[in-house]
Specification:
This protein has five helices and no strands.
Length: 88
């Protein structure tokens, strides 16, 4: 039922995975047993999931969304901040 529909090397962002699998954030939150706002914040980049939630997302998406997606996002943001401090 839930398959791969894009992404690089089998890794997709959660929002892309939800869209490809026709799931709302609320439906996915119920399946993970978390509040809808938790998924909303993760999708919007306002929150990095806990290890427990990241593991659950990995399992629910059959590995298409994994912890590296958030780790890379944080690294990019930190690099941007460092650049702003150096050149701002």
């Amino acid at each position: 039922m839930w398959g791969f529909a894009g992404g690089i090397l089998g890794i997709m962002k959660l929002s892309e995975w939800l869209s490809a699998n026709k799931l709302t954030q609320a439906e996915f939150a119920v399946r993970l047993s978390v509040h809808r706002s938790t998924i909303c914040k993760i999708v919007n980049g306002d929150r990095v999931p806990s290890v427990r939630i990241a593991q659950s997302i990995y399992k629910m998406t059959h590995g298409h969304v994994n912890l590296l997606d958030w780790t890379n996002h944080e690294q990019e943001e930190n690099q941007g901040r460092s650049h702003e401090r150096a050149h701002g």
